[in-house]
Amino acid sequence: MARSPLRLASLALLAAAAGAGLWFAMGRRANSPRFPGAHAILLSIDTLRRDALTSYGAPPSATPALARLAADGVVVEQAIAASNYTAPSHATMLTGASPRVHGVLNTHKSSPRPIPPELPTLADRLRAAGYATYGDSDRGYVSKAFGFDRGFDTWREEQTGLRPKIDGAIRFLESLPPGKPGFVFLHTYETHAPYLPTEEELDRLSARFRDAHIAPRVLRRILRNEEADAENHGDLFEDAFHFRPEDIAFLRAVYASKVREADAAVGALHAQLSERGLLDKTVWVVTSDHGEEFKEHGSWQHQTVFDPVARVPLLVRLPGALHAGSRRDVVFPAISLAPTLLDLLGIAPPENLEGYSLASDLAGSRGAPTDAAHCVNYHSEAWVGTAVRSPRSKVIAPAPGTSGAPEAYDLAADPEEKDPQKIGSEDSKRLMVELARTLTLWEALRGRFNPPANTAPLDEQALEQLRGLGYGK
Ligand SMILES: [Zn+2]
Fold first, then answer.
1. 228 C-alpha to ligand 1 centroid (Å)
2. Strands, E assignment, 132-255
C-alpha cells in the first residue's frame, strides 16, 4: 500500500520536532464519523466541579438535564482544565494553545493582555470555514478586553446567568439560511462564588445548616444590599479564613443549588433545540474552565491544581445521539477541545497546533498521542506551578524560577491527593520527563507570537463585576 507523501512529510516534521526536544501533535483522521455542516454549541459553565454532576457520581437530582444530555452523548472521564483561572483556561479552550503559550492571564491590577492576534481562535477558524458565529458570555474575564470576542459575528457580554442567553442563541440558529451552519459559544458565571441563592433558598439552607454562622450571614448581607455586592463579597473572602466545617458544608449546599439552576437552563436549551429540530443537527459540548475546591487542600474556590479544580466535566452530544451513553476514559486536555470540535465538524485542525484532535477517541478508538495533560497554576497574576496528570499519577511542580520541590501523587492509592510523595516512582519520573518536554515546547511556541500589547485598563464597571466575583480586592 502506497504511503501518502504528505503523511511522510508530516512524520519527518514530527521526527525533526522530537529531535529538537519539541513535540507537535499531528492531525488524526481515524475512521470515526464527522459531521460537516453541523451546527456547534460550546457551553462553558464556569467553575463547574466534575463531581457536582449526576453523570460523575452526584445523586440523580443534582443535574438531571446534564444527565439526559450525557445519556444521549459521550461522557469524558479524564478531562483536564488548562489552568485554575478563568481567562487563561477559556483562552485555551478557544485556541488550542496552552496558557503559557497564549499568555492570557486573569488581570485586574495590570491591563489585560488579549489573545495574541496571530493566534486564530476557534471562532476565527469556524468563520473561515463558512460558519456564522455567535458568542454570549457573563463577561468578567470572558470579555472583549481579553480578546474573547475575536471571530464572533455577534458578541454579547453581560452577567445575566445562563437562562436569558438561551433564547438569543436559539434565535440566532433559527435565523440562519438553509445550509449555513452556526457556532454558538455560551459562558456563564452562574456557579461561581458567591453562589447567590434566592432568599427562600437561603432561608431553607440556613435552617438546615444551623451551625454555619459566617457564610450564611455574609450571603444574606450581599442579597439584601445589592449595591454593596463587591464589598460584601470581599468580606466573604476574608472570612473564608475562619470558615468552620459547617460553613463549608453550607457553601457546598448553596453551590449545589446554583448547579441545579444552571442544569435547569441546560434542560431549557435541550428542549428548545429538540422542539425546533436542531438537536440532531448539532455537535454540543458542555464543559468548564476549572472546578471548585471547598478547602480539601486548604483553599476555597479555585486556587490550586488538585483534582477538585483541575479535573472538569466534559460531555459531548453528537448528531443522531451517536455513541449515546458511552464513557471514554481518555485523557482529554483542554488544548484538545478546539481541534476536536473542528475535526468533528469535518474541518481539518491545523497540524502545527499544540492541541490535537481526540475525535476518534470519542468514537472509542485509541488515537490520543499521550496519556498526560497539564494544568497551569496561577495565583493572582503569577505562575506558581504546573500539574501534569495521567490517569494513575500526578506531579505538581513549582513554576520555573520559583522555589520548592515537585510533589507526586499516586491517584490509584490516594485519589484525594492527601499524601504527597517525592519523585521516585516510574510513573512520577515519566511525568517529570513529560513536564520538562512540555515546558520546552511552551517556551518555543510562545516565541511564535509577538507579545500582545496590553489594552486599555478595565473600566470601573468591569472591575466592579470582578470584585463581585471575588477578584481584585
Ligand atoms: Zn472560571
1. 22
2. 132-137, 154-157, 182-188
- pLDDT, tens digit, 9 for 90 and up, residues 65-83: 999 999 999 999 999 999 9
pLDDT-derived band at 5, boundaries 50, 70, 90: very low
Label the pairing between strands 132-137 and 393-398.
Answer: unpaired
Domain residue limits, the chain: 33-450
Residue 208, number of CB atoms within 10 A of its CB: 11
Tell me the CA–centroid distance for residue 86 and ligand 1, in Å: 3
Q: For residue 34, report the distance from its CA to the centre of ligand 1, in Å.
A: 30
Separation of 85 CA from ligand 1 center, angstroms? 5
pLDDT at 262 over 80: yes
**379-421, pLDDT tens digit by residue?**
988 999 999 999 999 999 999 999 999 999 999 999 999 999 9
Centre of ligand 1 to C-alpha 48, Å, is 9
Q: How many CA atoms lie within 13 A of 120 on its CB side?
A: 15
Q: What homologous superfamily does CATH list for 33-450?
A: Alkaline Phosphatase, subunit A (3.40.720.10)
Q: How far is the CA of 47 from the centre of ligand 1 (A)?
A: 5
**Cα-to-centroid distance, 186 and ligand 1 (Å):** 13
CA of 93 to the centre of ligand 1 (A): 12
Q: Average of pLDDT values for 320-345?
A: 97
pLDDT digits (tens, 9 = 90+) for 420-452: 999 999 999 999 999 999 999 999 888 887 656
Q: Is 170 helix (H, G, I), strand (E, B) or coil?
A: helix
